[in-house]
Amino acid sequence: MISDRFPRLRVAHLPTPLEPLDRLSALLGGPRIWIKRDDCTGLATGGNKVRKLEFLLADALRAKADVVITTGAVQSNHVRQTAAFCAKLGLELVALLEDRGACDPTFKRSGNLFLDRLFAAQTRIVPAGTDMRALSAATAEALRAAGRQPYVIPTGGSNAIGALGYVEAAAELLDQAAAMDLTIDEIVHPTGSAGTQAGLLVGLAARRQPVPVLGVSVGKPRQELEAIVLAIAQETAAYALPEVTVDPQAVRVDSDYVGEGYGQPTTAMVEAVKLVARCEGLLLDPVYTGKAMAGLIARIRAGRHAASRNIVFWHTGGSAGLFAYPAALGLTAEAEETGATALGIA
Ligand SMILES: *Cc1c(COP(=O)(O)O)cnc(C)c1O
After folding, report:
1. Which of 20, 28, 189, 297 is the most exposed place for a label (fewest CB within 10 A)?
2. How many Å lie between the centroid of ligand 1 and the Cα of residue 198?
């Protein structure tokens, strides 16, 4: 196992549950949809970054870091999980946040950014289009000059070390499925900085169980993102499992559900978030899982999956972001009162 050979801090609540979404499956009339609950990884409302940070922050401690630098968008789930993990380890976090995403009035007060501040991360918001990699490097240089020992985690924690979390996660899912006698026909998940998909592909290849994986892009166009997934997958294999080769054909991204851009709401996302909330009591998020679920729903409605199939939707977390998008979801105070009036209880 990877975790025997690479330092890892065991913080995530694992294994995360694998559950059927029977009401949603029946409503869509297609395949049986299962959900892999990485929204339940346990740290500060959960999410997929905890698995990556178990390896990244173990590496930071090995490097004797006393401060961590990371980057993301204003409502980054990765930054929120890093802030919580650093708090737990007593490490300072400098969070460089690119001003992209939506422009709801609560955007810079609520959701993940509010939690970053609660965890005492030092947040700095910079204009959209800033070269975040260069800014991280310059920030690290300045801290080093001041006698500190910084450790830089890239956006989304997506590099060969972070992806190890999803190499292990793939094995976790295969073990769960085997124990339930479940054959998984496809895994669908949102893909952004590509580390999750890269790790899953390496993990599945390592077990010689090449379950098809579809990454639904939340920002980048298909070809660009497929190239990034492949590059990180190859780096990860070279770093940890040199005997594993990643088949470029296995790298599949669908970028049809991005809409206007990263963090910009779409009608299909709003429908997916509401549908899953109202028929399963489950929280998705506006930036990642809402768009990925919109993609899965559209593919099922287009008849691309036989009813006999089992599809795993990998829930990567993000529900804290909901609180920064009330207007996009049409759930402002006024909308609520309209609902009450309709029921005759206002
Ligand atoms: C970061 C994130 C993703 C994307 O994972 P990557 O490894 O960056 O591709 C998906 N969903 C949520 C909720 C995230 O925070």
Report:
1. 20
2. 12
Question: Which residue, of 124, 157, 190, is where some domain finishes?
Answer: 157
Query: Among 44, 41, 10, which Cα is nearest to 121's?
Result: 44
Strand stretches in the chain, DSSP E = 18-20, 32-37, 67-73, 92-98, 122-126, 150-153, 186-191, 213-217, 253-254, 310-315
Q: Do residues 206 and 180 both lie within one domain?
A: yes
For residue range 216-270, list pLDDT tens digits in order.
Answer: 999 999 999 999 999 999 999 999 999 999 999 999 999 999 999 999 999 999 9
The encoded tokens of residue 303 equal 């008849």
Q: Output the pTM of the full model.
A: 0.96
Using 70 as the pLDDT threshold, list the residues of the chain that sit under it: 3, 103, 333-346
Q: Is 190 in the pocket of ligand 1 (CB under 6 A)?
A: yes
Q: Mutate which of 196, 217, 287, 313 to test ligand 1's pocket (most atoms within 8 Å of Cβ)? A: 196
| CB of 196 sitting under 6 A from ligand 1 | yes
Last residue of a domain, one of 157, 182, 197: 157
**What is the residue range of 259's domain?**
2-47+160-333
